[in-house]
Amino acid sequence: MSELINAREERGADISRGGPYYGELIEQVRGLMDRARLVSPTDELALDAIGILKQLNDKLDAAVVNEWSTPTWTRFDLPARGNITLPPFMIDHADSSGVDARLTFRNYHLGGNNAAHGGQVAVGFDDLLGMAAAMHAGSITRTASLTVDYRSVTPLNTELKVRAWAERQEGRKVFVRATLHDGDRLCAEAHGLFIVLKPGQA
Ligand SMILES: CCCCCCCC/C=C\CCCCCCCC(=O)SCCNC(=O)CCNC(=O)[C@H](O)C(C)(C)COP(=O)(O)OP(=O)(O)OC[C@H]1O[C@@H](n2cnc3c(N)ncnc32)[C@H](O)[C@@H]1OP(=O)(O)O
């Protein structure tokens, strides 16, 4: 974890970006997303919520910045760097040998029957494989190929373990693998190819 923060800080990353309340703000947004996934509102409640959310969105508009200035690139102290598009995870260990994380899918990530949506599982793998590839290569990478094998149902609201690591690197090609476990049970595994970007490559 500290190696990850050091690697980012060397590149100007700042874990105070967004301020001390940013993590709680994102947690409240996640709580909203969880409720929105399951809510069946009365007309009155829907109208009330729409009014409050419109007002809030107008307020937040004033603080919107470009993607490179957002805290979600730098806040390695927060679940999934505070990135609400990712299932929340905490990194326990990250270095060139791999990444260990604890990840929880929430109601927002529901596919059906109390299980995580397969696409959400892939989102989690993509980010953590990308991190493993970057830590291995010492450079930011981009997903060229990602394959997920769903081995058993992935539960919601349960802390799961992810392990992601680079198997080998050939030039700019980083071959990565990952597993997702609920206790001893393998929920899913993934393998992928991540490409180190060339200098200046968009
Ligand atoms: C100190 C360091 C820092 C450490 C700190 C780390 C902290 C990390 C923090 C936070 C982690 C965040 C992690 C986020 C992760 C998310 C990543 C995404 O979701 S990325 C979005 C989705 N992906 C795209 O949109 C790609 C779209 N595709 C492309 O842009 C290009 O196709 C690209 C870049 C992948 C490759 O294009 P080309 O032009 O650069 O290279 P070409 O020559 O085509 O390919 C290179 C080699 O790869 C093979 N290749 C390419 N694609 C392949 C494929 N699909 N299957 C098999 N081989 C493929 C080719 O055949 C070639 O191989 P041959 O060199 O000839 O051996």
UniProtKB/TrEMBL annotation:
One of its GO terms (biological process) is fatty acid metabolic process. Its main location: membrane. It catalyses: dodecanoyl-CoA + H2O = dodecanoate + CoA + H(+); hexadecanoyl-CoA + H2O = hexadecanoate + CoA + H(+); (9Z)-octadecenoyl-CoA + H2O = (9Z)-octadecenoate + CoA + H(+); (5Z,8Z,11Z,14Z)-eicosatetraenoyl-CoA + H2O = (5Z,8Z,11Z,14Z)-eicosatetraenoate + CoA + H(+). The keyword Cytoplasm applies. This is Acyl-coenzyme A thioesterase THEM4. One of its GO terms (molecular function) is hydrolase activity. CDD domains: PaaI_thioesterase. It comes from the Bacteria. It is found in: Cell projection, Ruffle membrane; Cytoplasm; Membrane. Residues 114-185 form the Thioesterase domain. It is a peripheral membrane protein. GO terms for cellular component: cytoplasm; membrane. Belongs to the THEM4/THEM5 thioesterase family. It comes from Rhodococcus maanshanensis. Pfam families: 4HBT. Keywords: Apoptosis, Cell membrane, Cell projection, Cytoplasm, Fatty acid metabolism, Hydrolase, Lipid metabolism, Membrane, Transit peptide. PANTHER family: ACYL-COENZYME A THIOESTERASE THEM4 (PTHR12418). Its EC number is 3.1.2.2. InterPro entries: HotDog_dom_sf, THEM4/THEM5_acyl-CoA_thioest, Thioestr_dom.
